[in-house]
Amino acid sequence: ELNEVIRQVDIVITCTGNKNVVTREHMDRMKNGCIVCNGHSNTEIDVASLRTPELTWERVRSQVDHVIWPDGKRIVLLSEGRLLNLSC
Predict the structure, then answer these.
(1) In this structure, are residues 46 and 22 in contact, taking their beta carbons and an 8 Å threshold?
(2) Where is the S-adenosyl-L-homocysteine hydrolase NAD binding domain (predicted)?
(3) Closest-CA residue to 31 (of 50, 11, 16)
């Protein structure tokens, strides 16, 4: 199950076609530097839940953002969670 392995992985690529497959709870559990990207539909990663005052967004370059937690942990979000093959 995703909840069990999410802390260990270096990259998460969605390709299910379902909504909110990767939730804020999952992203809170990810290790520092985890790369998150979407391979199917724009709703698979709950990007809206990352747009809160407690998290900082840092544009690294076109289509690459760091989302930074208060403790300094960051995930690398590609294409703001949109379809990777159409944007990067």
Answers:
(1) yes
(2) 1-88
(3) 11
The sheet with strand 35-38 has its strands ordered as: 11-14, 35-38, 74-78, 64-68, 56-61
What SS3 class is residue 78? strand
Quote the pLDDT of residue 41: 78
CA distance 45 to 32: 18
* Tokens matching residue 19: 């909504």
Q: Distance (Å, rounded) from C-alpha 54 to C-alpha 41? A: 26
Let me know if 44 is exposed, middle or buried by CB neighbors in 10 A (0-12, 13-18, 19+).
buried
Q: What share of the chain is helix, strand, coil (3-state, %, to 5)?
A: 25, 30, 45
Q: How many CB atoms lie within 10 A of CB 3?
A: 10
Q: Which domains does the chain have, with CATH numbers?
A: 2-86 (3.40.50.720)
